[in-house]
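Hi V.,

Quick status before I head out on leave. The structure for the redesign project is tokenized and pasted below; the design run finished overnight.
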């Protein structure tokens, strides 16, 4: 990466560079390194490691407290001793998310609900859906999870079309998305002879689509969003071509919680005979209920004829345990392109519907148990509480003159400095002040902003008022101390705003190395 290239990036992304300036001030090593020329990879890694040492320390708070298990112990430790350690860690880590200090992460979190999930899991902890003969219960659970999700996302549609809806239970939103993208790549090759596949997605689509593009060698054409953070329809239209295997929209998007114009986007795709995927990982279990509660929810599900698949996360607002999601398709013809079979393997006839071979049947049992115990009434009540909390938080943030809410969100609220404070307020420092108070919010970029995904944790008494008070205090503090340097910017906020791509990638890889260090 040479100086010329950096200058080119600077012209292209002026607002990013403005943020970078602030970050570089905090990390003089990085500053020196970025500004130097003819940087080689080794140097990048060395520098990144220095910066990350502090971050890595935060990642290993138990190092001093508990024995580091480098090897399998010669003789096993007593179970009570092991469980005591697990219990202590759980207690330590529970405080933040349980107290409503965290964006997203734990979406339900009531003790009795967790106990119920654990009992369901415990009863089926040995189940492996790979062995359909041994655990027919897994087939019942998964078929019914898929049906319940599909019917939730097709209400009002004619029953004949509804009967064709199908899907798979997966390990999470990313797997649901990866599977759908692989499915469309293979389908386009078989049906249309597409050899150079492309996807079309707004820049705000989840990173899992970038991951799919990388893993499966699909070119990802990213289209910009408008001032409301919704996909630009004209740009979507221009991006679709003969190699397009799928068009994507979010309901809502992870960064700003905004729903793309799914109806128009899916119609564009349908007219060109291209599949359309709605990413409802985040919204799938809220939007149908928000609509019943008369919140403005545009069409996004199978009622739109162009929508050919939907990803929806049971482990988010479906309130199941972590590790399940559903990928839904309009018909089994599409789903066949997802399935894997091999007939000549010496290990026998082998087939598997998703990426994993062996799978945790206990998680499907717990997911099924959640859906059937929460029920429509339970989801409606949860949506009522979450959306009411969101209304309060949006109203109160809009009263803070230095902040503005981005787009028109329902329950994931992104805020940035308002026009009057755009030059004077560093939103990442506001986030840092919040983290000093125990919060864990998401730092986003392009533009620089912070978001909170509201969950049932935030609907507990006094939590929303405390959040607003703490936010006001944080903004006031940053305004009163404009020259103070932040102590430690979170890696996300820092790395995400660096202009040089290779630097960012290496920083994040070093971060992952640190995660796996003893
Ligand atoms: C969470 C999320 C995903 C990815 O889900 P994981 O379960 O984290 O793999 C995809 N899209 C959106 C909009 C999400 O919010």
């Amino acid at each position: 990466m040479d100086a010329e290239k950096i200058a080119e990036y600077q012209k292209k992304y002026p607002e990013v560079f403005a943020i970078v300036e602030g970050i570089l001030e905090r990390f003089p090593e990085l500053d020196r390194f970025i500004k130097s020329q003819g940087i080689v990879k080794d140097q990048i890694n060395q520098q990144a490691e220095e910066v990350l040492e502090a971050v890595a320390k935060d990642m290993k708070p138990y190092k001093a407290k508990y024995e580091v298990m480098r090897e399998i112990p010669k003789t096993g430790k007593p179970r009570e001793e092991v469980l005591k350690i697990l219990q202590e860690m759980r207690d330590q880590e529970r405080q933040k998310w349980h107290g409503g200090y965290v964006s997203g992460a734990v979406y339900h979190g009531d003790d009795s609900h967790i106990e119920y999930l654990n009992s369901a899991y415990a009863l089926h902890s040995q189940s492996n859906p790979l062995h359909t003969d041994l655990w027919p219960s897994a087939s019942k659970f998964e078929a019914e999870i898929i049906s319940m999700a599909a019917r939730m996302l097709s209400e009002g549609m004619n029953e004949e079309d509804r009967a064709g809806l199908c899907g798979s239970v997966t390990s999470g939103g990313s797997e649901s998305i990866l599977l759908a993208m692989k499915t469309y790549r293979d389908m386009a090759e078989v049906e249309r002879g597409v050899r150079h596949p492309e996807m079309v997605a707004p820049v705000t689509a989840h990173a899992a689509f970038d991951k799919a593009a990388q893993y499966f060698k699909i070119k990802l054409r990213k289209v910009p969003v408008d001032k409301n953070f919704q996909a630009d329809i004209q740009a979507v239209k221009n991006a679709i071509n003969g190699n397009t295997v799928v068009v994507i929209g979010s309901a809502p998007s992870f960064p700003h919680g905004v729903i793309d114009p799914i109806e128009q986007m899916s119609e564009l795709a349908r007219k060109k005979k291209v599949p359309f995927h709605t990413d409802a990982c985040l919204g799938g279990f809220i939007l149908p209920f928000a609509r019943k509660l008369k919140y403005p929810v545009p069409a996004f599900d199978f009622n739109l004829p162009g929508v050919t698949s939907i990803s929806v996360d049971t482990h988010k607002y479906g309130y199941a345990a972590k590790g399940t999601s559903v990928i839904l398709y309009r018909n089994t013809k599409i789903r066949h392109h997802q399935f894997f079979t091999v007939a000549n393997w010496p290990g026998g006839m082998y087939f598997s519907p998703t990426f994993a071979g062996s799978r945790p049947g206990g998680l499907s049992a717990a997911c099924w148990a959640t859906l059937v115990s929460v029920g429509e009434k339970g989801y409606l009540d949860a949506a009522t509480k979450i959306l009411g909390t969101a209304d309060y938080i949006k109203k109160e943030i809009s009263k803070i003159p230095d902040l503005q809410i981005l787009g028109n969100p329902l329950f994931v609220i992104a805020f940035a400095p308002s026009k009057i404070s755009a030059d004077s307020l560093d939103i990442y420092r506001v986030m840092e002040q919040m983290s000093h108070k125990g919060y864990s919010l998401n730092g986003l970029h392009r533009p620089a902003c912070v978001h909170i995904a509201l969950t049932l944790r935030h609907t507990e008494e006094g939590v929303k008022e405390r959040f607003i008070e703490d936010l006001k205090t944080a903004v006031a503090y940053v305004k009163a101390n404009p020259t103070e340097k932040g102590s430690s910017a979170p890696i996300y906020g820092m790395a995400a705003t660096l202009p040089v791509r290779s630097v960012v990638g290496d920083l994040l890889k070093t971060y992952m190395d640190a995660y796996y260090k003893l």
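Above is the designed sequence. Residues 172-174, 177, 206, 208, 250, 254, 279, 281-282, 313, 325 surround pyridoxal-5'-phosphate (CB under 6 Å).

G. will cover questions while I'm gone.

Best,
W.
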